Amino acid sequence: MDSLRDVVVIGGGVVGTAIVRALSLYNMSIMLVEKQHDVCEGTSKANSAIIHTGFDAKPGSVESDCLRRSRELWPELIGALKIPFLPCGAVMVAASETEKAKIIEHYVPNAEANGVEVRYIEKEELLEMNPDVSEHNLGGLVIEGEGICDPFWVTRAFAQLAELNGAEIRFGSGVERIEPADDDSHLVIVLEDGSEIRTRYAVNAAGLWSDEIADMVKDESFVITPRKGQFILTEDTLGISQIVLPVPSPSSKGILAAPVVFGGFLLGPTAEDQEDKWDRSTTDDGMEAVLNGVEKLLPGIRSATTIRQFAGLRAVCSTGDFVISPSPRSHRLIHAAGIRSTGLSSSPGIAERVVELLRSTDLIMTERSEAILELPDLLGESDAASNGEIICLCRSITRGEIERALSAPLSSTTLDGIKRRTGAMLGECQGNGCIPKLLDVMESFTASRGLAKAGGEEAPLKGLRESYIAGQAGGRDNEI
Ligand SMILES: Cc1cc2nc3c(=O)[nH]c(=O)nc-3n(C[C@H](O)[C@H](O)[C@H](O)COP(=O)(O)OP(=O)(O)OC[C@H]3O[C@@H](n4cnc5c(N)ncnc54)[C@H](O)[C@@H]3O)c2cc1C
């Protein structure tokens, strides 16, 4: 029988991996189970990539508390996990006297209540910093603390650090059922393949599906509904140096324009309620809504060239706030659920809250004295970059960088996984130029590893080329 774990985290998005990293700093047996075959396959991979300050969060909410604490934790984490971060700041523009009044009367005091520094600037300063912004705007609210990161990097780095500290990470492990032990001493987690994991506590970080995980212990205390956000990516140069956002609507932070940490600009997202938790398709109407929204901020945007469009789904919670608490039906299941629109930014604070909740249980949590706090140079960023021929011309990614991504801990053998680990295929040509060469590197590298390892064992990537061609014939997905 499988040994008894102390904590199993369900879900390998930014929230689940932040939690498993935080738990891996303690002497405990920790496991993360993720339904998909990599981390960051859910909402965490398709968002605006902004590390928000929480200036506009509802004071006193769980969300604003997590954002406040995360603001304190990010500077150290960004350094320790080598997270690419663009501290560009944001500006919320006032397009009318009514919006200016809303900024001054609502957003300034709200930001102050949340401890976030903001300042109102007049039109001249706004246009000096962001020449492409419409001249009709009256001014804007600058939020210096906001910045842009790479969400996949954050999620991967959390998971890699946890793995280095001994946490076990299992992909392709969808949770199907949770059964409390008869004597309530532990939970039995039953996976889709029928295997069982016994654990003292479980953490529900299953994003859009966290209400279904709750339901597994007959907890119907919250419901999650998806709200789609569609985006456009452009590599054109835009005359903005900050994240430019409108005064938000009740359902979303509004359609904005933001720099991408590795280059280019992101436009969007829309806010469309739907029922299907899997539908991340983009639509003509959605694209038009994005362009209409951004046009109000940047009148010349329609001349920009789109290189990609994609959509993400927010997990909208019926409670209206994050749910970070033990389930009312089982004290052994801790929810980190309903993390709607700021989960990337608030993930360190959420993780700390979950650790605190677990510390108040019967678990013995002593700090690991030899815990690794900084991520080593796993992808060989320093030496691999200069190693070998350039495979991705748009992003100057070398053979060495691809090979390091294939061999690093928590490596991936899918094109998407390599794309997100190296940045290859993310440039202007979106992989059209480099995919054949990439497949060659991936196939020969893993084949040589496979042969060396298992004397004739089939190469792990066998069939990748065929599945890529099949995918092309059927239309490639729109995800980043
Ligand atoms: C359009 C849009 C824009 C956004 N912009 C920002 C932003 O700029 N800044 C910001 O901070 N936040 C932003 N967000 C919010 C942020 O992306 C989310 O809050 C965050 O990604 C939620 O992370 P998560 O780990 O809870 O969920 P997910 O990333 O969805 O992870 C949940 C994981 O659980 C797994 N799972 C589900 N069911 C099971 C099961 N039964 N067994 C095992 N695994 C399971 C899933 O496969 C998935 O990988 C935005 C969101 C959207 C949609």
Automatic annotation (TrEMBL):
Residues 390-443 form the BFD-like [2Fe-2S]-binding domain. Residues 6-357 form the FAD dependent oxidoreductase domain. Keywords: Membrane, Transmembrane, Transmembrane helix. InterPro entries: BFD-like_2Fe2S-bd_dom, BFD-like_2Fe2S-bd_dom_sf, FAD-dep_OxRdtase, FAD/NAD-bd_sf, G3P_Oxidase/Oxidoreductase. The chain crosses the membrane at residues 7-26. The keyword Secreted does not apply. This is NAD(P)/FAD-dependent oxidoreductase. It comes from Paenibacillus mendelii.
